[in-house]
Amino acid sequence: MRTFAEATAVRPEGGAFRAELDAHWAVGDKLHGGYLMAVLARAVTAAASHPHTVAVSTSFLLPPAPGPAVVTVVPLREGRSTAQFRATLEQDRTVCAEALVTQGVLDDAEPYWSAAPPPELPPEDDCFLLPADAPGAAFRVHLLDVVEHRLDPASLGFAVGRPSPAGRVGAWLRLADGADWDPLSMLVALDLAPPISLTLGVTGWAPTITFTAYNRRLPAPGPLRILMNAAEITSGRMDETALAWDAKGNLVAQATQLAAIRV
Prior knowledge:
This protein has 263 residues and is mainly β. It has one domain (4-260): Porin (Beta Barrel). The protein is built from 5 helices and 16 strands. The strands form 2 sheets. Strands 1, 2, 5, 6, 7, 8, 9, 10, 11, 12, 13, 14, 15 and 16 form a 14-stranded antiparallel beta sheet that branches.
């Protein structure tokens, strides 16, 4: 099993970047959206003079399979503090995902002002470590082998036939390879499992249609605390908003996505 850095590695070739998409970063047979965003952002970071991914907005067009893929990076604007790029992930000459990526410089300074204190969650060890093979599940969540999700017990009612109407999930997350979180791996953390739809009692796949993420600062070493909320499920689609705080209690990243509901 490869580390996150190995699973998202890219190498320049012929004016683009080659990647080997890793089957461990998947839910069932579908590669995780946050993981694919991290591969796109890794290629942009390799091409950019600014070191950190600050924002990514991605449209998912077709689900790629594990294996070889090509990422093409096109610079759009280069400024002193930020630069913008378009990145396209292709497999077998078919576009699977396209992203607009902003690069800049992040630091770990304390916020000047914040209205987003970290949520009150039970201690990490008192939260439930989600297994990759859940009893009665229709597929294996391979992602849970590589990212440790410790779910707030208040979000677990769906597992025993008592779904919650709150539309909220809280969790502690760590990379299973022991690496600290960084601006690329936080893109994975912001696409939390399980989806809000499952906690509401709506079974089935929830593939991401479009996803926008912002990295706010460099995270302190240690686990991330994640809070994800949904406002509405309607017309076969669902919104999810995620916030992430580091071990110091500082907001480090946030995201909004629109997902389909496949019952």
